[in-house]
């Protein structure tokens, strides 16, 4: 028997008059517990004390304790009662009003009630079945708003819309009150969130692990000076989706020292100690009871760490030092790392994620194992996926826990780790393949450096076994390319082997001489071959492979991932080939079986079913049912109707409705008025030189210049009206990217106020691009630009979202563009630019001074320099596209090389858009061809090929 204590009723609290037509307080408790939200095969009675009425009632327990859970649609009005319950008894706002912010909180909390039931049941069932589980570790989870996604997955959108109308609110208005969760920035984080949705939908036993950032990356403001950053405020009003688990926390240590215990084991003692506390967020699947968990860590210290004596003496900074050091770990996503303090903070973030998550994973394993824990089967029950190199410290941390805490030997711990951890590579950019200072790591995580050195030593012996020790130059080359420790002396165990190999080679040479000459006679040639003291010293240094004291000593995290993991995957076919043949070629030759491709995907629920309901209805109508939401291969049915005039008419009408929403949104956010009959041309993604927003805006500048040189009649005849929309954040310390943002906004300010041009061309930069903005822009887009330098974008996922929504792509053969073009058809993709296998040669040509710029490229740069876009000095930006070598110069990303090809391709875009029947056909075929790019497909492949887990369907 259990008692659920309800808060005492507040006699003065009042709802608006629309609530007073029934006896709310008298009926709420009964309705809350007896409304058939869920049918249960097994129920139990419990006594609930209603404090407001001070009476006991025998009610049915709404929480399932049996083995089955059958979801049913709530009765009419029952949702409204639950919303009202939370509005009064789970208050985040004053009781006098029921305005939109309060309506959102109460609505979200009512949805969370439903999720918790499935959530708890899912967890209990996994424990009962003792299933193998995948754990996805990521520094980012770019979730977006959760309300519409949650009720959509629960198939309650209609019911919630109806009951909210009864309460005087519109569901869409309520949903807009929710801030985007500031837990990510770009495609890496959005991919992680799509994966969680698919894991739940496909019933795979899995959890996500991340950090609970208080202020996110930053909120982007666009001012006359370009981008400005302020802290995100997403937690200011509270987060109704998260549940703090005060009983689930783990210690995390920094600094200190390592000691040798009497039994020969190691202990890490002293230093700085913090606590990681769990915050859980439910992730519901679509049309399934499975609800998995995203566990986020927040950091704090024990109250006794607050220096009360210092506070009372007025030294407040000292009093708060320990508290601030702990809490700031989870303040900001990707703090600037130009300073040693910034680097240290980033490493603290990464280690906190790894340490707390692994301690939690191991605790789950031990609880499920009962009294007898068999560590050998740990990899049979646990798969840890590292989303990029940020969670690399999982590898030494797992070894540390197994050795120092659980008492396993090095050999046992190393073997278990190599069978547990897998690595997803997301970049080929050298600066994005993390390298950390060995000294910094040694200071912050001394025990982990010891373990990393042991792993490096294992790798060295593996390399020597593979290539032998006869050719020292070859070994030196392999060590330089493959070692985890860069520019670090060889381990003591290796030097004798190399010296022995050298001496053996010398003996062999002497013995050979003995066979042909008199051993008692010292020949003149032998005298000449005796090494000098200087040569002996040089030879000794060669054998020792001495590091260069002028260069830093580094830990290469990507190499550690490859060595310590059992699987390495790229995220698009072309990217995976580059990973195998260039980035990790030496490792691929050593362990080819480790390397796989897993092309990224996006969830069709959020990215078409929920964000584009008008188009979704059309797809359902023409494919015959709604099965495509779970089985996107059914989208291919649209191919046979691509020329059907009725479908095309419906398709164009849906697109225009979405464009009108975009136009209204742009007016609200930027003040610019755009014509929905123009082509909507969109590039929204993280601002980076390799993504080449600069190429796009220079193309627009050239278009504008040519327009200005024409008569009004010529302009209309030559150019299709366009609205060019940009969005994305430049990292706060990335000066060149911020220059690009400034340039785009300056071009927009000039073009959009040019009365001669009018609606023929508009340029709009949308501030603070995030998931919610994407959900508005993508359905209304007609042309989407994915124009990165070939071979530099690992995959991309926004290209998939645009194609799924019937947007035609212009792009290079880079990342997933290659596969998208194959699926949608070459005629339905606008291709331009150099190919990946040409890039190295083109850069070499540039360095040799052989590149000759197209005259149009020179023309557009001169136009920018003329000052037509305002007084800002764009010399640094234009200068980066010039010269043959040097940092920040020489057009490393080949904007100038691809510029003429880009302009010519844009002319083809205009030509195609004039023929609306052709364009609509292309749009339909893009949606039909996007079937392959569902994250459901990707997760099936991860589960089958990497994690080796099976779906677990709740009974």
From TrEMBL:
Residues 512-523, 530-540 have a biased composition (Acidic residues). This is Alpha-1,4 glucan phosphorylase. It comes from the Eukaryota. Gene3D superfamilies: Glycogen Phosphorylase B. It is an enzyme of class 2 (transferase). Belongs to the glycogen phosphorylase family. GO terms for molecular function: glycogen phosphorylase activity; pyridoxal phosphate binding. Its main location: plastid. GO terms for cellular component: chloroplast; cytoplasm. Keywords: Allosteric enzyme, Carbohydrate metabolism, Chloroplast, Glycosyltransferase, Plastid, Pyridoxal phosphate, Transferase, Transit peptide.
